[in-house]
Design goal:
418 residues
Length: 418
């Protein structure tokens, strides 16, 4: 096989689907905020998002549109048609804002959506903006774009003199979307976690919230970052609003320690900016220490893992978790604290040949069910459905591991293999 064919094979996906796109990440993050999101693309992307990736679509109103670009539009531009359609819809539905995002074709023909948004804002008096999507990057990048824009919006209207005090620390939950968390159960579990540790919820970014709640979230005392995609927003809110942040997911074994960290953070000054940025190594193993100031990462002490040792010194078999970087990282830490079993964390997307080779000696794998096809028969596989990977295919099997009951159920399933 020549070099070109080898490179093509490494980039192809025979068994795994592509992860949800960055345009869908934007839609998911902005879904509940009363805005109008327009994907500038031919028909199809809208239905793919709403029927596969968005569980709220059938019982929650949201203005998600597609421009239905034709070949004629793509060749000649037809920006006047796009403006006319958006303005008509805006006058009918009166959205809080207008977000126009490009997919591949609009990106490739370099449609100037920033200029079009300025015209829309002038003509409709509704805030309008675009984000640099192209449908060729994963969903988390789109979520990061959307949350960062919201953070700038919150910071723009922030005044230190108007910040109120609260008897209990107020916490913003950053990065909460159905693409990474259970859309019905995750927020109630996090609210229970906060309430049981004398913490108040300031705002959920952006599941179960409104634009008004987000705009008041500058009053929060600390931000709890729940996904990699929320880190840019956390840094903006720290720098411009003085809200410190920590990165942690309060799975039951870590809940008390994380709560103590949130409590103590309120009395401290904002952390200094991280000396090194996040590097999640999508094609490699997840590095254990990644944020610089260790106060941001809880618990502070990491167990020694096979992921930190050279391949020659690793055991003949390994345990693996595959998924979103932060959730997988803290799942591995929580499982080590509970079972003393070490897990390597693998973060998508992958080259399928590389992943198959990595999992060749796997003993236990926790991942979305679609990864089972790449797992050797000798390995034990426990499904943890991830909507950004498999859409609604396994939605009835989705787990909410923030809940102590579902956490105990996972441990019970794992026990025979540890």
């Amino acid at each position: 096989m020549n070099i070109t064919k080898t490179a093509a094979r490494e980039q192809s996906a025979a068994l795994l689907p592509t992860y949800s796109a960055d345009t869908f990440g934007v839609c998911s993050a902005l879904f509940e905020l009363g805005g109008m999101i327009v994907i500038h693309d031919p028909s199809g992307c809208n239905s793919t998002y709403t029927t596969h990736d968005e569980p709220r679509w059938y019982d929650h109103d949201s203005l998600i549109f597609i421009s239905a670009m034709t070949e004629y539009d793509a060749i000649l531009g037809r920006d006047d048609k796009l403006l006319h359609d958006i303005e008509d819809a805006a006058r009918e539905f009166h959205p809080n804002f207008i977000c126009v995002i490009p997919s591949q074709i609009a990106h490739l023909i370099a449609t100037d959506l920033s200029a079009l948004c300025r015209i829309l804002e002038r003509d409709t008096s509704i805030p309008a903006f675009t984000l640099p999507t192209n449908s060729m990057h994963p969903y988390d990048q789109g979520i990061a774009y959307a949350l960062a824009h919201l953070a700038h919006h919150v910071a723009k209207n922030f005044s230190p003199n108007k910040k109120t005090r609260s008897p209990r620390p107020r916490v913003n939950l950053l990065g909460l979307t159905p693409l990474d968390f259970h859309f019905q159960k995750a927020l109630p579990s996090l609210k229970t976690f906060l309430a049981s540790h004398d913490l108040d919820l300031a705002a959920s970014w952006t599941l179960g919230t409104s634009i008004e709640e987000l705009e008041s979230s500058a009053n929060a005392d600390v931000n709890l970052v729940l996904t990699q995609s929320a880190l840019p927003a956390a840094k903006i809110l720290e720098e411009q609003c003085g809200i410190p942040y920590i990165v942690a997911i309060p799975y039951p074994p870590l809940a008390d320690e994380i709560a103590n960290a949130l409590q103590s953070t309120r009395t401290q000054k904002s952390f200094q900016s991280a000396s090194t940025d996040c590097n999640f190594g999508r094609l490699g193993r997840f590095p254990w220490k990644f944020l610089g100031p260790q106060d941001r990462l809880f618990p502070r002490e990491m167990p020694q893992s096979p992921a930190t040792t050279p391949p020659s010194s690793r055991a003949s078999t390994q345990n693996y978790i595959i998924g979103e970087p932060l959730s997988s990282f803290y799942l591995a830490k929580s499982l080590f604290q509970t079972t003393h079993a070490s897990f390597d964390v693998l973060t998508p997307p992958f080259s399928e040949p590389d992943l198959i080779a990595t999992l060749k000696t796997a003993h236990l794998v926790l991942a979305d069910p679609l990864y089972e096809a790449l797992t050797p028969r000798a390995a034990h596989f426990l499904p943890i459905p991830h909507r950004a990977c498999s859409g609604r295919t396994y939605e009835k099997q989705e787990r909410n591991l923030l809940d102590p009951v579902e956490w105990a159920a996972l441990l019970s399933e794992m026990k025979p293999y540890l």
